[in-house]
């Protein structure tokens, strides 16, 4: 875009050119020809459907008609009369050049008879190969003069841009009001019929729309009237709902549970089983409707850092909320409370995600890019100290959310539906839960709650472990604390054989341990 005429308003074409003081003669064989340059600025459509409206004329399109003849010393078309720009149209005669003779055309009334100058030469790409009308002919401005004109030029350019923006906004609004029915409109509106609003398979909206009918909001109320809100999802067609223990703990003893689906239908529910250590619970709809669609369960062992995640829940009671993120880390040791209901903690080797999770998301599904459940959203790390999502005085999400891997949750759910109580794998030894400065999980040296630090004839005892041993690895997983060891053990099942690396008297040892079991929460 040339800057020769930028920022100057384009005046209306005069009915006749102004008469110069001294009109030079022109040759008789000259042809009517002219060159125009218009400043074009960006357009800013203000109308709801305006997009890309052209604000200022480009080239010759939409430009006003130029006079048939112009004086040799007149300002370039588009500049106010009498203003000199220091540049000339390409091919135009320079001041002082010898004019050529030409028959004088009939001047408009009051203009006087004077011969116009020779029109500028028209390049070969213009109309008629250099003859005829000169619209579209270009010019080559000279280099701007140094000094104070640069600032004025910039200001003029800004003024032109603002003017063009206003014109574009007006055009866009006018086009929107007319429904784009005018074929001369410069805006294009997308069709708004339902058939054209299909979401791409695998998109977040597609996954969310399919999953939302199977995600529920849970309202738990204790016998004393206290309660809270959490989330769950349909586990099977019999009406079992999978959620967190801390979501339903307040209603487990004589309380009430109400489940609301995304379509607004509400159902009463009852607790089938709870696992405080895993922070997993199963409830069941009392009058389960037909046609329930369980969410598909994925394989949390195959999740990789960086995989896309979608979380669905009711943060702060806002049901059917969908957020997205990625898997930030795996096997993150997390300890959380149940909100003060029992004073006990849960341990997990969690999936960490930066998808926005807040109080009320507890128990909701964490989905992968296929829409399969890979975890149960259970805890967050708030900006201030606190426990899990059920903790008191917590702030909102800071991008540190934790989910129970679905492979573990599935095993727990099956056990709860079958027997109503959880089963935990154990090594038969008590370990310190202090994490500050720990380089492993240290087996207690003294009795804990009246029990021996190493259970006689238990798995650890049979493997030769003793009080004071420091466990540093379980299989290939580094153990840096007691909670990390517990979380890793609980990813297994009773009867699994694991390899434990430990240190005793400064020496490292490795033994195989067959995990035992403990039934119920104690």
UniProtKB/TrEMBL annotation:
The chain crosses the membrane at residues 153-176. The keyword GTP-binding does not apply. The keyword Signal does not apply. Residues 425-506 form the PDZ domain. It comes from the Bacteria. Residues 1-147, 180-202 are annotated as: Disordered. InterPro entries: Chloro_Bact_Ser_Proteases, PDZ, PDZ_sf, Peptidase_S1_PA, Peptidase_S1C. Residues 22-112 have a biased composition (Low complexity). GO terms for biological process: proteolysis. One of its GO terms (molecular function) is serine-type endopeptidase activity. Pfam families: PDZ_2, Trypsin_2. Keywords: Hydrolase, Membrane, Protease, Transmembrane, Transmembrane helix. This is Protease.
């Amino acid at each position: 875009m040339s800057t020769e005429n930028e920022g100057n308003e384009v005046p209306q074409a005069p009915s006749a050119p102004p008469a110069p003081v001294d009109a030079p003669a022109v040759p008789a064989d000259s042809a009517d020809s002219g060159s125009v340059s218009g400043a074009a600025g960006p357009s800013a459509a203000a109308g709801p459907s305006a997009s890309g409206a052209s604000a200022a004329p480009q080239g010759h399109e939409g430009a006003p008609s130029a006079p048939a003849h112009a004086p040799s010393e007149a300002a370039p078309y588009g500049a106010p009369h009498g203003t000199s720009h220091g540049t000339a149209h390409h091919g135009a005669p320079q001041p002082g050049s010898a004019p050529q003779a030409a028959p004088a055309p009939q001047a408009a009334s009051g203009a006087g008879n004077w011969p116009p100058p020779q029109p500028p030469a028209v390049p070969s790409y213009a109309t008629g190969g250099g003859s005829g009308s000169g619209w579209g002919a270009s010019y080559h401005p000279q280099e701007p003069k140094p000094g104070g004109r640069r600032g004025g030029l910039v200001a003029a350019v800004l003024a032109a841009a603002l003017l063009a923006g206003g014109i574009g906004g007006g055009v866009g609004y006018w086009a929107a009001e007319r429904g784009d029915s005018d074929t001369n409109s410069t805006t294009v509106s997308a069709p708004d019929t339902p058939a054209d609003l299909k979401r791409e398979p695998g998109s977040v909206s597609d996954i969310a729309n399919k999953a939302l009918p199977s995600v529920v909001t849970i309202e738990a109320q204790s016998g004393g009237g206290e309660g809270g809100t959490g989330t769950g999802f349909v586990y099977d067609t019999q009406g079992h709902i999978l959620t967190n223990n801390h979501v339903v703990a307040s209603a487990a003893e004589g309380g009430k549970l109400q489940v609301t689906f995304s379509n607004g239908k509400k159902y009463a529910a009852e607790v089938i089983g709870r696992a405080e250590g895993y922070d997993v619970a199963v409830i069941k709809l009392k009058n389960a409707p037909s046609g329930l669609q369980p969410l598909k369960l994925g394989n949390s062992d195959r999740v990789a850092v960086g995989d896309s995640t979608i979380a669905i829940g009711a943060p702060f009671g806002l049901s059917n909320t969908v957020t997205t993120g990625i898997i930030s880390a795996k096997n993150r040791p997390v300890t959380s409370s149940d909100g003060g209901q029992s004073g006990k903690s849960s341990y997990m080797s969690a999936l960490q995600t930066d998808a926005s999770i807040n109080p009320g998301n507890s128990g909701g599904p964490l989905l992968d890019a296929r829409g399969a459940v890979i975890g149960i959203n259970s805890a967050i790390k708030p900006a201030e100290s606190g426990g899990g999502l059920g903790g008191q005085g917590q702030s909102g999400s800071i991008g540190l959310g934790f989910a129970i891997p679905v492979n573990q949750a599935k095993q727990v759910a099956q056990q709860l539906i079958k027997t109503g109580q959880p089963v935990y794998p154990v090594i038969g030894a008590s370990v310190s839960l202090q994490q500050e400065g720990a380089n492993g999980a240290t087996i207690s040296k003294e009795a804990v709650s009246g029990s021996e630090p190493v259970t006689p004839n238990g798995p650890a005892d049979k493997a030769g472990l003793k009080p004071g041993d420091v466990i540093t690895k379980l299989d290939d997983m580094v153990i840096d604390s007691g909670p990390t060891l517990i979380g890793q053990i609980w990813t297994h099942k009773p009867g699994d054989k694991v390899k434990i690396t430990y240190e005793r008297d400064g020496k490292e040892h490795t033994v195989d341990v067959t995990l035992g079991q403990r039934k119920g929460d104690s």
